[in-house]
Amino acid sequence: MGFNPLDHKGIPVADQLRNWRELDVEPVDPDLADPYTKCRIIVMNGIEVESILFSHQFHRNCPDMALKHALAQTRYIEQQQQKVVNWLLPGSSSALETTISYEQVAIDLTAWLARQEPDPYLRQAYEFGVLEDFDHLYRYANLYEMIQHRKAERIVDSLTEVMPGRPTRYHHRHPIDNVREPYNAKTTDPRSKLHSLTLVAAEQQTMNFYMNVGPQYMEPIARQLYQEIAMVEEEHVTHYGSLLDPTETWFERLVLHEYNECWLYWSFMEQESDRRVKAIWELHLNQELGQLHEAIELMRKHEGRDPVEMLPAELAPPMTFEPNKAYLRELLDTQIDLTTLGTGFVKDAHERFQAMQDALLGGELPASDAVIAQHEEMFGGSDYRMQTDGEHPRPELRQSALDQLAVAPGAAS
């Protein structure tokens, strides 16, 4: 049986306020927690942050005082939800350890959404992006062993492989080539709307996280790597954000945000292995159900439209965190040398792409390559990898990581 949030009233927004004792949650154990529990925490933090930021923008563009009051009341509750979710992360983990979990999120969330995506263009956009996050995990994992002398498998377990993806140096594209075609809100599958909004929120949270934690490191290579990858996250937020239909109204977006939160909290409640965290997902689902019905009533009142018409009869199947190794290996084998041109995907290193590369890199080794070179120097000529399912699917990426500079867009036959 599917789950239809419209059939469940949840907790009324007026009854959702919690006291400080209820907000003071115990964090998960960094050594014993399921890696995917941490991934679910990171995703829902990003989802709540996106909902809060959207509500603030709506508030700033809204002349109706009663509507401002309604948005402010729900937004305060969402701020409480965000504090509970994000405070589940262990304070004993370093920023770099949390970063590695962020990249595991980006890989297995995006890969799962791509596998489920019914729209071929959106699916291609997700497949393109995931190979870049895959490479980011590899770079951060090498940095982690260099500066904390620990291996990334203690964080990601054997669930997500660590090896080169599309080399980060080739992620730096001209900004106009990061803008995609939006879906059509009137004709697209409702799942596509949920997928796009989820990825925008997740990548936006990653971008914001790197923007803030990057300069906290003393090691020059760490500061440089965070700076480089943070700029790629700007590209990713543009890439995914441009997929949203700009003709959707503020009220349509408000309903979609709440509906998407219901879908994700329900999904994670269904699969959560930590009983204490599962109880939080269940509580927040019931709060989101109340917030969804509030948003529906606001849309009916202010637009004279019934949003039920744009919502499906039941939620999409639950989003599942699971290994995507075979799927990712297929993408590595077939799409690693893609770049973008306008709103499309090409294998040619075109003039605009090359001009951006020349201007940004200036003929010097970027931090993403330098971190591998320094790791090889520190550890006797080897990079860090965790390849549970055999050698890299691309033969040219099985040797020294520095040799992957040959894998440029258009290099493959």
Describe the overall structure:
This protein is mainly alpha-helical. The chain has 13 helices and two strands. The protein has helices at residues 20-23, 35-60, 65-86, 95-116, 120-148, 153-156, 190-213, 220-241, 250-271, 275-303, 325-335, 351-361, 367-378, and strands spanning 339-341, 344-346. The chain has a two-stranded antiparallel sheet with strand order 1-2. A hairpin with a 2-residue loop joins strand 1 and strand 2. Helix 2 runs antiparallel to helix 3 and helix 9 (250-271) runs antiparallel to helix 10 (275-303). The protein is globular, with a radius of gyration of 21 Å.
Question: Number of helical segments?
Answer: 13
Strand content: under 5%
Strand order of the largest sheet: 1-2
Radius of gyration: 21 Å
Elements, N to C (H/E): HHHHHHHHHHHEEHH
Averaged pLDDT: 95
Q: Any low-confidence stretches, pLDDT <50, length ≥5?
A: none
Q: State the shape.
A: globular
Distance between the termini: 48 Å
The class by helix and strand makeup works out as mainly alpha
List keywords for this structure.
two-stranded antiparallel ribbon, single chain, mainly alpha, 1% strand, globular, 58% helix, 413 residues
